[in-house]
Amino acid sequence: MKIEKLPYFIDLYETRSYTKTARNNYISQTSVTQFINSLEEELQVKLFDRTTLPIQPTAAGTRFYQDAKTLLRQYQRIKEGLAALDRNAALPVRLCYTSKIDLQILLPFVTGFKTRHPDVAVDVEQATFKEASKALWVRRCDAVIGIDFEPEYTGQLESLTMYQGEYQALVPEGHPLFGRDAIRTDELYHYPLVMLSPHVIGRSYEGMLEHARQDGYYPNIQRTANDMDGEMFLILTEGLIGFVPDNYFPQEYAGRMRRIPIEGSHHRFQLEMKYRSGENPSLDLFVEELAAYLKSE
After folding, report:
1. Number of domains the chain is built from
2. Residue 168, CB half-sphere, CA atoms under 13 Å: how many?
3. Which domain holds residue 248?
4. DSSP letters along 64-93, please?
5. Is pLDDT of 260 > 90?
């Protein structure tokens, strides 16, 4: 397998088109076909069902797609790391984050860090809550920022608490609770709710259900969404109540929805950075200065 050719497979999976894949990679369709055929022969599986148009990936193709993206990222970062060592330069800090909130907290610190250490590159990549733990486990990144990590991947890693807070209700204009300054738990659970899908937020979904049970209720989760934008859409179009951390509000929806505290609720969270120390000097420096920064805030 030639790792540098994996983009051919990834593009074919995403576009379902040999023509587009060839154009994206500046090669002929024949070259794409030959690579996919050789890949299937090497792996001893069929990656695509060619009896339909457009072609469709098989179950093996879908599984390999995820692994191929991880393998390609690792290969590219190995090359970057070796090139940095060859230049006697600092290794980059590779961070996986799960939401805009993570970057909002990091931004002022990273700006100062880069001023003090201009030779250290800080690269960021977004992952779902569920993917984040595994991303660190397979060394796709040096550290991950998120909530409710998967313990089988992160149980032995070091942790830095970045923020502790509570979830608040996100209520759309026109909802009976829109004008309230605070919402009681019995009022909250009287109405249908929307949450991010468990396929996206992983353990956090069960955590939210557990918090509701601790409040003494079972939530009426009417809809789930695959991302924050989708959740905002459902809140506004279907009049549902969502949840949002107390340190974040989508300003583009100001006036059309409000973030309202929930009285006496167990809906709390802890935003953490999980990492391995001793493997990347740049990361160790980054974590040391970040811990001092957070302590001073």
Report:
1. 3
2. 18
3. 163-270
4. HHHHHHHHHHHHHHHHHHHHHHHTT-PPPE
5. yes
Residues 204 and 107 in one domain: no
Instruction: Give the CATH number for residue 130.
Output: 3.40.190.10
The string of pLDDT tens digits covering residues 109-127 is 999 999 999 989 999 988 8
Asked whether residue 16 falls in the same domain as residue 36, the answer is: yes
Model-wide pTM > 0.90: no
Residue of 277, 295, 166 whose CA lies nearest to 287: 277
Strands (E), the chain: 48-49, 56-57, 93-97, 122-126, 143-146, 158-172, 183-184, 193-196, 221-225, 242-245, 257-260, 262-263, 268-275
Q: Encode pLDDT of 124-173 as tens digits.
A: 988 887 777 778 877 888 999 988 777 766 667 889 999 999 999 999 99
Q: Which of 62, 81, 100 is the last residue of a domain?
A: 81
